[in-house]
Specification:
The chain is an alpha+beta fold and about 150 residues long. Helices cover about 25% and strands about 25% of the residues. The chain has a seven-stranded antiparallel beta sheet with strand order 2-3-4-5-1-6-7. The radius of gyration is 15 Å and the shape is globular.
């Protein structure tokens, strides 16, 4: 994952309590085992990000790997094992973020950060979270170094 990207997980239940999980050993697959979604359920993301070839046949990729993207991990029967997305904070990502938030709201999914923080399904709160990440701070420091 690039420094300019921030990763999030989409989980299939908005009532999930992630506070008891360790962020160093987190596997979102345990949440997807309990439900039966096929990869095609998420094809709707092609409305906002173009489908692309992933490095793995087990991943459906929407968008570009090093930019804004959504990854659907699936098993050999196309059952969803994991759903995550990355926001490229250098880009104009608001439209993509709003689309993902609306999708999650409509299907009672939740979004958690890589740090296992449950992010409110609200654009303003989401942007606030993104703007306060270590990734942005490190990126800004590097940008300032390049200018000097």
């Amino acid at each position: 994952m690039a420094l300019w990207q921030i990763r999030f997980f989409i989980l299939p239940d908005k009532h999930i309590d992630v506070s008891k999980f360790d962020k160093n050993d987190f596997d979102d697959g345990i949440f997807w085992e309990k439900v039966n979604f096929k990869k095609d359920f998420f094809a709707i993301f092609s409305n906002i990000l173009n489908p692309n070839k992933s490095w793995s046949n087990d991943i459906d990729l929407y968008g570009q790997q090093d930019e804004n993207c959504i990854e659907i991990y699936k098993d050999k029967n196309d059952k969803v094992q994991s759903v995550s997305f990355r926001i490229d904070f250098r880009s104009d990502y608001i439209k993509i973020l709003d689309y993902i938030i609306n999708f999650c709201t409509n299907y009672n999914f939740c979004i958690i950060s890589n740090d296992l923080i449950k992010i409110p399904l609200n654009s303003e709160k989401f942007i606030e979270y993104i703007n306060n990440t270590q990734n942005i701070k490190k990126y800004q420091i590097l940008q300032n170094l390049d200018k000097n």
